[in-house]
Backbone:
């Protein structure tokens, strides 16, 4: 079992709709959870951080964490073509000495 | 500076040759992390440093890979006797708080092609 699992996609969503990205992780001791966005040929950039159960909102982005189910999600409201990218879920590993990345979900927003 | 500077951007090596990659973290960031990205999205953790000390090296293939972060010098990742499977983009990232809420800032990566 991979430590961080994501559906690779591609996930195709119409412009203006809500995009929902999901992630599960295996280490119950993980404390910090991240979402990174990576455009093709570029480096990842941090878009959300969450550590408490529940929802965290930042503009059009909402991260959701459920530690009991070991599940993290990212919602993108009012999706724009510029949101088309690969979204990487990441979790801090044992001892918090590294962040472990999922293999990413490719999101495509169609006009 | 305010960016993580990785050099070179591209590196081509013949199988068996040595490859050396460099990373200058953001000033004030005391943590450095190296990752290998193959097949577009698989991010493999290699090694992390806190200042010049190894923080976690559980991802390093120790036979051929080595890394250093020395004071007043860019960090480096060296691959001895490269193999075709080492072809990947190598990302360096730095952070001010390890794996805390500020996350990582990534460099633009070094694309290594082994031929």
Residues:
């Amino acid at each position: 079992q991979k430590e961080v699992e994501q559906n690779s996609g591609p996930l195709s969503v119409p412009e203006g709709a809500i995009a929902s990205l999901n992630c599960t992780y295996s280490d119950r001791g993980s404390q910090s959870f991240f979402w990174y966005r990576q455009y093709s040929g570029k480096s990842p950039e941090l878009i959300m951080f969450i550590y408490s159960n529940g929802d965290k909102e930042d503009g059009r982005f909402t991260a959701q964490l459920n530690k009991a189910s070991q599940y993290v999600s990212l919602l993108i409201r009012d999706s724009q073509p510029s949101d088309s990218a690969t979204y990487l879920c990441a979790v801090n590993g044992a001892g918090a000495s590294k962040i472990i990345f999922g293999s990413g979900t490719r999101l495509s927003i169609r006009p | 500076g305010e960016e993580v500077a990785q050099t070179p951007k591209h590196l081509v090596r013949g199988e068996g040759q040595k490859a050396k990659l460099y990373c200058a973290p953001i000033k004030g960031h005391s943590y450095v992390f190296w990752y290998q990205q193959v097949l577009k999205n698989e991010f493999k953790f290699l090694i992390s440093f806190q200042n010049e000390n190894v923080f976690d090296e559980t991802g390093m293939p120790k036979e051929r890979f080595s890394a250093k972060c020395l004071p007043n010098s860019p960090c480096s990742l060296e691959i001895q006797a490269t193999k075709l499977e080492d072809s990947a983009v190598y990302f360096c990232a730095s952070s001010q708080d390890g794996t805390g809420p500020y996350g990582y800032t990534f460099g633009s990566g070094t694309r290594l092609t082994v031929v």
Q: What stands out?
A: Chain A has no helices and eleven strands. Chain A touches chain B at residues 8, 32, 34, 36, 38, 42-46, 49, 51, 86, 88, 92-93, 95-101, 103-104 (CB under 8 Å).
